[in-house]
């Protein structure tokens, strides 16, 4: 791993900046950053369009206090530069049956569940993804292998809503089969990929049944009629949604009404996972394979940048990558038990939480981390889901 010094931007200043932004009573917007989006052999700089920073949520004091109150030693891997991560991150630590918030120094500042958080008869098993809600007050977690979606209040550590029956797969009212990447829109509606049912589902606030689905359950790429095992439905800046199809390695942009704007096949990506938007016209996906890769592409499927190290540094089943405002990319590298930040200019890891091939639950260790999100107000679900159209 190679550490990198960012002139004039220390880890302490990075955390302070995140707290200050989230605590502001009004925000005028985030400054534009610059990142490269050309091929690996010849990379030219291009401006990154960062969505305006949304107004802070009522929970900003609590969230800011979590960051400001962090103390003690960090637990990053050697060579990590804390300033490479401008703010904390939310991690779905799948095989540890928990979700945690980790700050740039590698300190855990929040965890669910803590001892005593689960009520009698309540479970929380194998969370594979977790995202902040648009108001920043809750977390939506999908327990894909346990067939349930839960909404968790950050401050009270309580489940405020769930959809699905733990351990019971199905397609009837109140059932899902491997739900993935559930996100909440600003009115409380949930949108989720329902992988094994080969559909995208829309769940009304506190709903007991879906209000709409995209895909007829046939697991083949033929949108808008059917989708081949969709594993992601992420909001875009234009109000549409980006669908990732495992079967055939397809990515599609659809409108809230279900109309297809474009479809692109990524033949060099064996198992695309959780595609999302860097900026309009430029998208990010990972290859959930061994060796894995992180890929930027456009709506024609043209590859703009690829991170695919080999040998000892090879990615092993990465399942989600997100763009950072500073131009870097953060990803969870599931089977390597780590979350990493990659500098695309140098094609090097500059920040890492979790030890390579060492699963554990003690500070600094993870066990198959399968999902992540950026701390408010930079969460993709806040910058995009708050403005997404209603399906």
SS summary, helix count: 3
CATH superfamily: TolB, C-terminal domain
Q: Let me know the largest β-sheet.
A: 4 strands, antiparallel
Helix and strand pattern:
HEEHEEEEEEEEEEEEEEEEEEEEEEEEH
Helix content: under 10%
Rounded to the nearest angstrom, the distance between the terminal CA atoms is: 43 Å
Q: Say what the CATH topology is.
A: Neuraminidase
Based on helices, strands and strand pairing, what is the structural class? mainly beta
Shape: globular
**Beta strand count:** 26
Give the percentage of residues in beta strands: 35-45%
Just give the CATH class: Mainly Beta
pLDDT average, as an integer? 87
Q: Architecture, CATH level 2?
A: 6 Propeller
What's the Cα radius of gyration? Answer: 19 Å
Q: What strand line-up does the widest sheet have?
A: 5-4-3-26
Structural commentary:
- With 391 residues, the protein is mainly beta.
- The chain has a single domain (11-387), classed as TolB, C-terminal domain (Neuraminidase, 6 Propeller).
- Helix content is 7%, strand content 36%.
- It has helices at 11-23, 60-68, 380-383; strands at 33-36, 45-48, 89-93, 98-102, 108-112, 129-132, 138-143, 148-153, 158-164, 179-184, 190-194, 199-203, 212-214, 230-235, 241-245, 250-254, 260-265, 272-279, 282-287, 293-297, 303-307, 318-323, 329-333, 338-343, 348-353, 369-374.
- The strands form seven sheets. It has a four-stranded antiparallel β-sheet, with no helix packed on it. It has a four-stranded antiparallel β-sheet with strand order 6-7-8-9. It has a four-stranded antiparallel β-sheet with strand order 10-11-12-13, with no helix packed on it.
- α1 runs antiparallel to α2.
- The longest helix has 13 residues, at 11-23.
- The protein is globular and about 50 Å long.
